[in-house]
Design brief:
binds nicotinamide-adenine-dinucleotide; binds uridine-5'-diphosphate; alpha/beta; 308 residues; two-stranded parallel ribbon
Length: 308
């Protein structure tokens, strides 16, 4: 097939491009390089089945494709809050443009949604039928509400125009090719630990997250796209739940670092807990994560050790 990956030069997008090329597809990787980098896909450049296109999905694009993976959107709070208007435009206008393309060429299109649609959840673990607890006017809203309206657009294009859609709700994912200055917790802690700098825990560190390794996540996305039982939304993540303090301690232990843990103010609207209910993914995709946190952290530490 000919497959478009928007945000393909980013952390998850580049791993997805690798797998699609391995599977024998033709891949068009489209990116504006806001948070992604050509370096993430440089090993694919020159492969006749790989094309790299600099383009911003807030503008329409004309292509002929069979599948669209819509991953373009900054994912780290630091980056998505840098230009919040652009962030929400990427989810809103980007989704309209990509759905319009899918409709015109009759491509199947998958949206990379997020656990952030649940906001600061009052239901734990989060199931797909929970509508969430999102602040519509806070500093995370450009991302959270952008992703929520994208889900609405996907569902409406499906109901109104019969576009063949898939929606995955991705929970915190980490691994090699995360940007060292990405600002997300796993990359921050590893970079700080490897440089023996203070580990910055925001708040008291009792907030929880569930961390999924990139290869597990990509496998689930590929399965979601190619099955025909469900359009989603479907949760994808690793249900192992850890406090941020536990994560900091694990990173210090695995790196053998001399870093000390320091506390910094908790950003506003920071969700207190997050853990996916992945019953649907298990049943429909016959998938569950294989890499536990220690293994995944060790692989990610190795990647950053080589690069720093
Ligand atoms: P990332 O920042 O590494 O990748 C996003 C990519 O999109 C980058 O290459 C960036 O340059 C590109 N991009 C941003 N705006 C664009 C635009 N307007 N036009 C074209 N390209 C644009 O982040 P990631 O972690 O790889 O996330 C990929 C997708 O998965 C995002 O949609 C994100 O919201 C979603 N997601 C990720 C996580 C996670 O934990 N990694 C969790 C939930 C959802
Ligand atoms: N966090 C932290 N120190 C950091 C970066 C993040 O304590 O250097 C916390 C952050 O406040 C949040 C959690 O780690 O509670 C996960 O943050 P991240 O930005 O990775 O993703 P989120 O799940 O909040 O979107």
């Amino acid at each position: 097939m000919r497959i478009l990956v928007t945000g393909g030069a980013g952390f998850l997008g580049s791993h997805l491009c690798d797998r699609l090329i391995e599977q024998g597809h033709d891949v068009i990787c489209l990116d504006n390089y806001f948070t992604g980098s050509k370096k993430n896909v440089e090993h694919l450049i020159g492969n006749p089945r790989f094309e790299l296109v600099r383009h911003d999905i807030t503008q329409p694009v004309l292509l002929e494709v069979d599948r669209i993976y819509n991953l373009a959107c900054p994912a780290s709070p630091v980056h998505y809050q840098y230009n919040p208007v652009k962030t929400i435009k990427t989810s809103l206008l980007g989704s309209v443009n990509m759905l319009g393309l899918a409709k015109r060429v009759r491509a199947r299109i998958l949206q990379a949604s997020t656990s952030e649609v649940y906001g600061d959840p009052t239901v734990h673990p989060q199931t797909e039928n929970y509508w969430g607890n999102v602040n519509p006017i806070g500093i995370r809203s450009c991302y959270d509400e952008g992703k929520r309206v994208a889900e609405t657009l996907f569902m409406d294009y499906h109901r109104q125009n019969k576009v063949d859609i898939r929606i995955v709700r991705i929970f915190n994912t980490y691994g090699p090719r995360m940007h060292p200055n990405d600002g997300r917790v796993v990359s921050n802690f590893i970079v700080q630990a490897l440089q023996n700098k203070d580990i910055t825990v925001y708040g008291d560190g009792s907030q929880t997250r569930s961390f999924c390794f990139a290869s597990d996540l990509v496998e689930a996305i590929l399965r979601m796209m190619e099955q025909t039982q469900s359009i989603g939304p479907i949760n994808i993540g690793n249900p192992g739940e850890f406090t941020i303090l536990e994560l900091a301690e694990k990173v210090i232990k695995l790196t053998g670092s001399k870093s000390k843990i320091i506390k910094e103010p908790l950003p506003s609207d920071d969700p207190k807990q997050r853990k996916p209910d992945i019953s649907n993914a298990k049943k429909i995709l016959e998938w569950e994560p294989k890499i536990n946190l220690e293994e995944g952290l060790a692989l990610t530490i190795e990647y950053f050790r080589r690069g720093l």
